[in-house]
Structures are given as structure tokens and as C-alpha cells.
Amino acid sequence: MFKKTYLMFATMIATFISTVAAFGQANEYPVHPASDGIHSAAPGQLGFMEAASPIMVETVAFHDMLMWIITIITIFVTAIMIYIFIKFNAKANPVPSKTTHNTMLEIVWTTVPVLILVVIAIPSFRLLYNQDVIPEADVTIKAIGNQWYWSYEYPDHEEIMFDAVMLNEGDEGYEDHPKLLGADEVVVVPVNKVVRVQVTANDVIHAWTIPAFGSKIDAVPGKLNETWFTATKEGTYYGQCSELCGIRHGFMPIIVKVVSQSEYEAWIEEAKVKYASNDAPLLQQFASSQIVSE
Ligand SMILES: [Cu+2]
Q1: 48 within domain boundaries
Q2: Statement to judge: residues 107 and 167 lie in one domain
Q3: What is the tally of structural domains in the chain?
Q4: How far is the CA of 178 from the centre of ligand 1 (A)?
Q5: Are residues 179 and 269 in the same domain?
Q6: Neighbouring C-beta atoms of residue 206, cutoff 10 Å
Q7: Fewer CB within 10 Å, N side or C side of the chain?
Q8: Does 4 score more than 90 pLDDT?
């Protein structure tokens, strides 16, 4: 039995090491400048992307606080267990004590975890509240998930509606974005303004997210979900559909370009002309032809 377990662990460790090695090799293609851990994830990145919105700053702070609590608890419990294994094993302690209750100890091990949970609950509920309650919005965008691309509307400007479809190798502009994250259209929003995002879907459940903004919300057919963000730094931020939505789930990137207020206003005027002739159903045809070709 012992040998079997040992073998299993050895296999697991070997698999882990070879996976990590393979990962290192897989990353030999040139890294796009936007894969910097700020705009999109850097190769091999394990932690969060750098926060680009107040909600994400709060999320990161909450995560870091939890990390300390978890680490201290884990070290404390491990230390106690090691102490017990050494001090109270059958050899070191042949005649065990028959003590069964200790009121003081029981009060402590009940109240201390409760206090820890209260300490966690306060920032946790504050964060949930801040994510959920949308301040008065300066800009509203509507994102609609489709298999497998995103459609966008600017409800304040009826003419502006477009589809954002992933760029493939060879497409115009492909080189401008990190691998699998480029799309033919981007969402443009002003910096330091409250952006309300209304999210829904046409077919199955998708999820709209920009990790650097701490925004992630399900796109559910027949339901209008809402989230918000305030981008504090200009730049182009990337996200991906975050709900398993079908075969091309990994190929529906989300791009938000954060620009100054004046650039945003200029873009709106341009977009009104550019997208005026857009018919939403056009790309539905594109999507269904894509399914057929697969
Ligand atoms: Cu999706």
C-alpha cells in the first residue's frame, strides 16, 4: 500500500515537472508587448494583473489580506500537528492522558475562528457591495455574447453597434494584439469615468470580463446583467469569454481601449458614421457559416 502511494506521488511530481518544462518551451514564440501583466497576462504569470480600476485595487487588497490569514493559519496548524506527532506518539508518550474536556480551550477554539471570519467578512461584503452598486454612469455600453464573438452597443448613441470577431493569423491588424486576443473591433471608453456595462447573450451563457478592471459577469440569454468599472489608466486592456460556451469558447476576446475624454468624444463622432450602416444580423450569418465550415 505504502509503495503504491509513494509511486503515485512520484508520478504526480514527474508530471508536474514535465508540464512546467513543456510550458517553458511553449512560450518561445515572441511575446507581444501588451502581454505585460498590465494590459494582458504576461507569460507564466500566476498572480493578478496590475489593477487598472478602483474595484480591482480593492480586490487585490482583499486577496492579499486573505493570503496572509491563510498562510498564518496553515503554518500554525502544521506546527501544532508536528508538535503533536513528536510529543504524543506512542513511543514518546506510552501512557496517554485521559483528559477529554477543557472549557477554556473550547471557548478559544470556537471564538477565534469566528473572529477571523468576522475580520474577513467586513472587507468581503464591502467589496461585493461596491461591485454590485453601480454609481451614476457617465458611459453605458452593452455587450452581447454570441457563439463565438461579442456584439456591442452604445445605448446612448443608437447608431453605434458592432461585432467584435477574433482576428486570425494573416488578418489585418493581427500583429497589433497578443496571440488569440485580437479582435477586429474594440470597445472605446473614456478614462476616469464610470462605465456601466450591460451584459446579455443571444444563444448560450458567456461571460464578459476584463481582469485588470476586476469586471466579470455572466452573459445570460434573456437576462440583462450589469457591472461597472472606472478605468484609471489609458491603454488597451484584454479579456476573454469566461464561461464555457462551446467549441470556440477560447476564441472570443474582449478588448477595451481606454482613451482621454476628448479622444472618446472624437471616436463617438467617427463611430456614428462608421457603424451607421451596420446591420446586426450580418455577422449572425458569418457565425453560422463558420459552424458549417467546421
Ligand atoms: Cu463565450
Answers
A1: no
A2: no
A3: 2
A4: 19
A5: yes
A6: 31
A7: N
A8: no
